[in-house]
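To the wet lab folks,

You asked to see what we're planning to order before we commit. Fair enough. Below is the target structure as tokens, and below that is the sequence we designed to fit it. If anything looks off to you, flag it before the synthesis order goes out.
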């Protein structure tokens, strides 16, 4: 059975060197910004330029030994945009995967769902992959090798591919299982179920049935619902939103680090080394970031797809809240606005500085014209001639 899974890897000739991820910690340093000329306080600039984003709640690691089978869902944001049609063709041509139709999802955002054709040995949980048009992909119960194979396969269908280190650093992992496993005899004993309450099991202080999917203690527990794929889509939608926001947060972190020296120069009273063209370039980067976040209204609002699907909306909202997406989005916008304000102040300062220089040049030209009109230069010329003649005559007499 394993040969079926290995063959596509060998046929593709994929190079996995792109995905040698190295996760580096982010250092945040705070520099005071004080400059009376610009009327900026010591805390207004540095606190926002280097402020850490809210910590995302991390899913607990799967214990090595547990009576409940656990699986993982992992999400990446690898590019600005996916060509879903060509991704579907490439994946199906690999002969290891097939497309999956998610019922009642016609009103959902553009996405593609696939699954492996062949099951793994002793596989008890199906594997699925969700691709979203905005450049995010979510893997359900896939191995690291399969994830890398897929990421390598879709690379040619990406627009503006992100750096692999950032992709891995901003990825999300959440554990999940099925409620039916909680009703096994050994689990009931472990969790001390109350035998007086039929069809329920006590788990983490809650009495649960096996009819409704739950999000408990940072983990997902699926019911045996017929809407299983739609529930996976709802969770995938939320986690894909989180990893996409993580990429933009990282970009803003890098931009903040790039301009922090400006605050230090202002505090020390040094002349700004920036030119107006550079500031306009920075403003262009910042407005691009604002434009991208504005296009994705889902960061602050629940997508329309869930408005008449209360059950799915509840699952989406729980994971949305768990990943602190609203709080992170607000802080992102605050930091972005602060950076824009700083650049606008610097732009105005350099514009005023250039205007002042032009004014002095004009004043100098006017003064020169006045001197010419008054004959000052003719007087100086005649006086110089007289002085030279007098000096020559004096020299001849003395000789």
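Sequence we intend to order:
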């Amino acid at each position: 059975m394993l040969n079926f899974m290995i063959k596509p890897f060998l046929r593709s000739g994929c190079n996995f060197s792109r995905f040698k991820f190295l996760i580096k910690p982010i250092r945040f340093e705070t520099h005071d910004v004080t400059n009376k000329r610009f009327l900026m306080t010591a805390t207004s600039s540095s606190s926002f330029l280097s402020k850490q984003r809210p910590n995302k709640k991390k899913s607990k690691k799967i214990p090595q030994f547990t009576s409940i089978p656990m699986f993982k869902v992992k999400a990446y944001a690898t590019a600005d945009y996916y060509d879903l049609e060509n991704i579907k063709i490439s994946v199906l041509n690999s002969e290891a995967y097939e497309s999956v139709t998610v019922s009642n999802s016609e009103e959902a955002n553009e996405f593609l769902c696939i699954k492996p054709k062949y099951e793994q040995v002793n596989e008890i949980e199906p594997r699925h992959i969700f691709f979203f048009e905005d450049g995010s992909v979510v893997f359900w119960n896939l191995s690291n090798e399969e994830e890398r194979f897929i990421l390598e396969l879709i690379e040619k269908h990406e627009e503006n591919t992100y750096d692999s280190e950032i992709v891995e650093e901003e990825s999300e992992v959440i554990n999940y299982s099925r409620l039916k496993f909680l009703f096994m005899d050994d689990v009931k004993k472990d969790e001390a179920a109350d035998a007086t309450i039929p069809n329920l099991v006590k788990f983490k202080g809650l009495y649960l049935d096996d009819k409704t999917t739950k999000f408990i203690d940072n983990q997902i527990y699926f019911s045996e619902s017929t809407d299983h794929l739609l529930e996976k889509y709802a969770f995938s939608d939320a986690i894909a939103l989180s990893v996409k926001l993580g990429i933009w947060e990282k970009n803003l972190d890098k931009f903040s680090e790039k301009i922090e020296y400006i605050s230090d120069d202002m505090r020390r009273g040094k002349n700004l080394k920036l030119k107006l063209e550079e500031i306009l370039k920075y403003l262009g980067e910042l407005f691009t970031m604002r434009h991208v976040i504005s296009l994705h209204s889902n960061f602050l609002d629940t997508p329309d797809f869930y408005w008449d699907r209360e059950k799915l909306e509840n699952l989406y909202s729980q994971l949305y809240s768990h990943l602190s997406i609203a709080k992170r989005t607000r802080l992102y916008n605050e930091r972005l606005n602060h950076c824009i304000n700083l650049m606008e102040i610097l732009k105005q300062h350099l514009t005023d500085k250039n205007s002042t220089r032009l004014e002095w040049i004009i004043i100098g030209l006017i003064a020169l014209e006045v001197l010419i009109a008054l004959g000052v230069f003719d007087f100086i010329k005649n006086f110089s001639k007289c002085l030279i003649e007098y000096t020559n005559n004096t020299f001849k007499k003395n000789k």
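Structural context that might help your review: Residues 1-48, 188-193 have pLDDT under 50 and may be disordered. Residues 245 and 334 are 14 Å apart (CA to CA).

Thanks,
Computational group
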